[in-house]
Amino acid sequence: MTAVADTPATGPAGTLGSADPEPGPEETGREQHPQRPALELVPSSRRADVAATTNLTAEQIEELGRRLDAIRDRILAERGACDAAYIRNVIGKQRALEVGGRALLFAGVLPPAWIAGTAMLSIAKILENMEIGHNVMHGQWDWMRDPKIHSSTWEWDNVSSSAEWRHSHNYMHHTYTNVVGKDRDVGYGILRLSEEQRWNPYYLGNPIYNVLLSLFFEYGVALHDLEVEKVVAGEKPLSRVWQQLKSIGRKAGRQAFKDYLAFPALAGPFFLPVLAGNLTANLVRNVWSHAVIFCGHFPTGAVQFAPEQLEDESRGEWYVRQLLGSANLDGGRYFHLMTGQLSFQIEHHLFPDLPSNRYAEIAPEVRALCAEYGLEYTSGPLWKQYLQVLGTINRLALPNGRR
Amino acid sequence: MFRSAPSGRRLLAAVSRLTTPLLPEDFLTLVDPLWSTTSLRGRVVARRRETGRAVSVTIEPGRGWAGHTAGQYVGVGIDVDGVRYRRSYSLSGPEGTDHLTVTVQEVPGGVVSTKLVRDLPIGTVVELEQAGGDFTLPDPLPAKLLFVTAGSGITPVMSMLRTLDRRGTMPDAVLVHSARTPEDTIFAAELAGLAARHPSLRVVLRHTSVTGRLDPAAVDETVPDRAERTVYACGPAALLDALGDAWEGLRAERFTAPARTAEGTGGTVDLGGAPLEVGPGQSLLEAGEAAGRVMPSGCRMGICFGCVLPLREGRVRDLRTGEAHGEPGDLVQTCINSACGPARIELP
Ligand SMILES: Cc1cc2nc3c(=O)[nH]c(=O)nc-3n(C[C@H](O)[C@H](O)[C@H](O)COP(=O)(O)OP(=O)(O)OC[C@H]3O[C@@H](n4cnc5c(N)ncnc54)[C@H](O)[C@@H]3O)c2cc1C
Ligand code: FES
Question: Tell me, what CATH number does B216's domain have?
């Protein structure tokens, strides 16, 4: 981390591109699409902040890394039947909720049944995507060697396909966390969430794009795997995109058929209430997961990084980047469950493959370590963090806006 | 559940449009775990203590269970402390029963055998594979049979004897069985009963605490017409090795892998996902399982080919011979091959 302070300020986008093994957009000599919110970088104004937040020596950083490793090793050694029972219990309850919700929706002409059914289905979809799907696909439960609860086989109730998502999320986002231009979760290729993304008039629509992304978040996630700007830059063959599009299309088709045709049709005369219930549940899930995920990395306090941070990054420095780039959400047990324990975003980013039910237990230890090393441990209630994120999105719509 | 009927399959396909991305069985198994349509499962319905360190476990299989031929084994997957382990156990019950029975003797420090013997609640659900193995009696039966068994090696032979007893066609057969002590002899009383009921069956029980370990010479002494008999043997590797060296045409069932001669260098293997470090002397199967991969497996000792995966790049080392081998496209047995340098193997 101290190395960051020593490196010269980030150069213009072209310089970045040449430091990168992949040719940057500029090097291809192609014209940028005017509409593309390209991940075009401008010099960072935040390097000083980063250095100031981490006034640690290289030895201190490595010592912190070892102490975090010790926490991880302890949980790995303890992992066992209780953890296995936890995830099986959540999966069982989630499926029961889904069956119950869909059954109630068949009686959806009665408003109380519609409300209860829609609520149950929404909760089931949120649990499936957050506490179960996201975490299973991270490999958090692979140690059980149960082929039914395994990252290599899990397919989630979401239009983006597991395989694509595992690449863009597990690899790109967790490796390059909050590194602008590398971590595609910074803005999902649509929004401007960092001053280091060069402003253009397209971004005047930032707040509107955010509302749309929130409502259709599952599609946003699916499409952000396409990396369209790489195609524009000629770095990714169209054939690969076509292949991905077909896969997204197949998955989206099956999802839409189930929620918007098959179940409503089964309800016969009550087609419309069931359709409305399913649509609402999908929207609720989208808005909720968007809020939780954006609050994990973009509230004030969560730090963004320049690509040189990645050069020769040590284990300790990696930990520190994960710590500073993430933000937690305060709440009770059921709130944490509904966020898929992403309310422990910091712990999740430090230890992405530890079983999620353990994050709550190690959070106080991580917080204490942060206090000891003078690192900021960002945490706050959802509403407050979300207002900060919205504020950032609104400010960055303008050319001179600051995060 | 709907395994056989085509109309059932069509119904299943239609219902899976409603359960996508899950399968109907993911909901059905919440009601009864045995209602899986993609994997065979069973439920422990009874346990019987055989000796101080062995129990017989009776399992009710799901509807897909195709039964077994006496002498075969079954693959069992069971969770120990939250982690799924897969092992083979010979079926000890007679052919043609609805439930299947295995008899397990505790191996000191053994993960699965200790769990099965000491701490297996009734109702536990296990993963099953169809019965396999060719340690079975031919049809028609040989005129004269000899069974040589030791310790838990009695289990496949017990299934044969129980089956012959049920059919009422006991041929001329001798069983020479060795256990540590009389108390440690699995099925002692039942074997005595069988011998009493069938004049053509002779049972010789030996105890290593009294007469020492069983060897070919000792069997020859007890069974003078041994050379005229078709011999089936099951027991510790040392006994089977000695019998195999001494006699021609022996049919043997091994429970343990032959000693690993080779250590080799190990290497980094790409199974898809994060690369895997395979230590010297460690099998690909062990390394994969330790990393949480779901690896196909069976006997875990190089016999059943239930563990083969296609090699895509590099070579592997056979732990039995120490030989490095393999061409891209070869199906390699992961249970008895280790790495020798970098390799890529396709795990579906
Ligand atoms: C075809 C086949 C049929 C089998 N049938 C039976 C059966 O009917 N009854 C039965 O009890 N077992 C049977 N086994 C053995 C069984 O599959 C397991 O290997 C055994 O229960 C030990 O497993 P574990 O998990 O307890 O030991 P592990 O934790 O795998 O091993 C612990 C230690 O014990 C050693 N070890 C493993 N197996 C044995 C063994 N059999 N004897 C001595 N040392 C061993 C290992 O090398 C290791 O050092 C059979 C094996 C095969 C391949
Ligand atoms: S598991 Fe039987 S040959 Fe490998």
Answer: 3.40.50.80
Residue B97 Cα to ligand 2 midpoint, Å, equals 27
| Closest atom, ligand 2, to C-alpha of B303 | 3
Number of helices (H) and strands (E) in chain B: give both, helices first. Answer: 9, 19
> Are B125 and B206 in the same domain?
no
Considering only CA atoms, which of A313, A370, A324 is closest in space to residue A68? Answer: A370
**Distance separating alpha carbons of residues A397 and A199, to the nearest angstrom:** 8
Write down the residue that tokens 């049809």 correspond to.
Answer: B139
Residues B152 and B108 in one domain: no
Mean pLDDT of chain A: 83
Nearest to A96 among B30, B84, B273 (CB): B30
Task: Determine the distance separating the centroid of ligand 2 and the alpha carbon of B297, expressed in angstroms.
Answer: 6
Q: Round to whole Å and give the CA distance between B36 and B32.
A: 8
pLDDT digits 0-9 by tens, B156-198 = 999 999 999 999 999 999 999 999 999 999 999 999 999 999 9
* φ, ψ for residue A169, nearest 5 deg: -90, -60
Closest ligand relative to B306 C-alpha: 2
Beta carbons of A164 and A247 less than 8 angstroms apart:
yes
Residues B237 and B284 in one domain: no
pLDDT at B4: 53
Instruction: Please count the structural domains in chain B.
Output: 4
Whole-number Cα distances in Å, A234 to A18, A34, A186, A229, A244: 16, 15, 22, 9, 17
Residue nearest to atom 37 of ligand 1 (CA): B256
Q: Residues A47-62: pLDDT tens digits?
A: 344 454 567 888 888 8
| Predicted confidence (pLDDT) per residue in B214-224, tens digit | 999 999 999 99
Claim to verify: residue B247 and residue B157 sit in the same structural domain: yes
CB-based contact B272:B279 (threshold 8 Å): no
Strand segments (E) across A236-338: 328-330
Instruction: Please list every residue in chain A whose beta carbon sits closer than 8 Å to the beta carbon of residue B26.
Output: 95, 148
Instruction: Tell whether B30 is within 8 A of chain A (Cβ).
Output: yes
For residue B20, the enclosing domain spans 1-31
Assess contact for B154 and B177: CB atoms under 8 A: yes
Residue-wise pLDDT tens digits, B238-255: 999 999 999 999 999 999
Cβ-nearest to A156 among B21, B39, B272: B21
Q: Is the CB of B333 under 6 A from ligand 2?
A: yes
State the Cα–Cα distance between residues B30 and A340, nearest whole angstrom.
22
**Mean pLDDT of the B3-17 span:** 82
ipTM of the complex: 0.86
What is the pTM assigned to this prediction? 0.87
